[in-house]
Please model this.
Amino acid sequence: MSLYEIRDMAIQIDGRQLVEGVNISVETGKCTAIIGESGSGKSLSCLTPFGLTPGAALGSIKLDGIVLTGADADQMRKARSQLTGFVFQQPLTALTPHLTIGAQLQEAAAQAGPARLSRNELAEKLKRVGLSRADERLDQFPHRLSGGERQRVMIAAAIAHRPKLLIADEPTSALDASLRGEIMALLDELREEQGLAMLLVSHDLASMEGHSDDLIVMDQGRVVESGPTADVIANPQKDYTKRLIAATPHLNEPAPDLPSVGDTLMDTEAVTVQFPRPGWRRGKILAVSDASLMVREGESLAIVGGSGSGKSTLGRAIAGIGPLTSGSINWQGENLPERRARSLAMRRLIQPVFQDPVASLDPQWKISDIIAEPLNNLRPDILRNEREEMIKKALDDVGLGIEYLTRAPTSLSGGQAQRVAIARAIIAGPKLLVLDEATSALDPLVGSSILELLAQLQRDQGLSIIFITHDIASARRICHRIAVLDDGEIVEMDDMAAVISNPQAETTKKLIAAS
Amino acid sequence: MRALLNRKHWPLWVVLILIALALILPAILPWTYDQIDWDAVRAPAFSGSHIFGTDEIGRDRLARLAAGTQVTLMVAIAAALVSLIVGIAWGATAGWMGGKVDEAMMRFVDALYALPFMFIVILLMVIFGRSILLVFIGIGLVEWLTMARVVRGQVMALKERPFILAAEASGTSSLMIILKHILPNIAGVALAYLMLTVPQVVMVESFLSFLGLGVQEPLTSLGILVKEGADDMDMTPLGLLLPGGLLVLLLVCLTIEGERLRDIYS
Model:
């Protein structure tokens, strides 16, 4: 008999059936993971039984002998506050900003019973989740802590009342790549030590692999496949699972076949970017320091680093849409000046693509106007009727039909919007694309199709690519070489295969472990 | 546009009906706002052709009400539009340029905020005499400040958005980015604040007129009508209640509509 058992659950919101036929069981000391794309109903399935969504759950749901469907308020409260702990995706919004860490922990622990914990006991709980200087942190407010530290506090609060079941909804998705491994390891440790049953929700198959015993794959409100994690991954039965596994980049998959490269196209010499401190404070923030790198014709270079490592700032300086404090960016020996000093001819060479596809399209413009914008500015030599043809061809190149021309950006899905953004980037015939986390905000299937599209464009048009990401595994699918950035400095730069098989810098090792 | 037909936009419809009445009534009434009916001084309501009676020198109340509403709304809308244009230009420039330029421009706005504006308007009136132009300048001096702040904030938030960076990479000039990408995206918020500026200007204009610093007789405004009504209220309370009630109705409707729009767009 499992601790938490869901049989044939359906979830309705406002009379619409969003989830049906879901079976989940979690045993004490084991971890069950639910994997799915956004909108697959995975979070809904986890939170609705506890009344944490507007939906209503039907079916048979039992937690430690309590029947949750139709439970009265007392039983529900007992199930939710005493038997269960929750960890959410956003550690900042899940902590109350005006309460100190100590107060939050005290409140969480109070769910178990009225006895107040002493300061030492509270500090002990923080130490248990790997926070240093625990005593000092009890008096700090959440905003003083980093993202990873906040998530540790969330975990400490979730298990403070010694629950039997821990539900973690995308616990690492909002965290820096290098921290994800640590948080997952912590969850594993706690599960073993305290005999917790754990229900984990994630969109990222790769991060669940070594951490869950059972796997449930969901798509469009239904369970596609379920079973022991190792079995499902090694021997997927359903087509959807197979595609999902193939789409998830892996460091031990066979090396991709990359196009050959030519001579040096673009290089940077000691690029440094400083920002003034906000407000009236003196001094500067050093975002990128002394970054020297180069990209050859037809080559893809991955710039990899955690958040705040300066990788986006460096990419923007190269693309001419961000500041450059000192150093130089050269195009086949010719100097490219910073930002607004760039001529239209120089702009044409390098085009950016951004992380958030919806925010990178002006919501007030039609798709055809968005794609035409670079063409109108950068290619005045092209006649009007040819332009229309080029817009249609660019849409075709990124795999969209001409019916998209008149649509509004807000009506597109993330993957479609990212394709439009790529069409805009390639239409004026650039030589180098700077992709800033271009696949990170997308679901795995969509993200991998964008990666394929990029590889395709590179083969067909001889494009060079700078692929900025935190995810080495997905960079490996299209990149020849890799530069690892830490705290604004390039700590390692070599061929992709060499870096992965023999990483030198500490940051690189962490990033590889997280992939 | 169809969204405005929704029932929850009733305040807008009340305002539009009042404006229509203020425009149409003078054409169909037998009396003009400055015409004196010597036979019916201080006539009560519904006496002869005077629906709301006449004031203490025999002018038709309804005609004066319509003319006053026209003047008040004209001043308000014109001043709000001026504040819109100046505020957007100032705020968008400051927000887009950022850094030292932004600091200097916004400190200037702060300095203007700090001025005792009513005092300055009164001073101007005393020195240069009363004129509707001075009322405009006085009001315009202050009302664009809030708009500039709002627009600056919106521009600052927008300018780091990827689609603006993409436009820059596409070779679009700064001016064109502001005109074609930024302004269309802040139009909703600007409209909401325009809607909120109109009642503020109505208040200020009425206040100046009440003090006798607004428009000149025989031209009238709601503020002047309220003042005249207040002077005479022990004899004919209708003279105060009518323009006062109309003023309150206008202000309430405009403010509700403006706040509703602001909630939608920001």
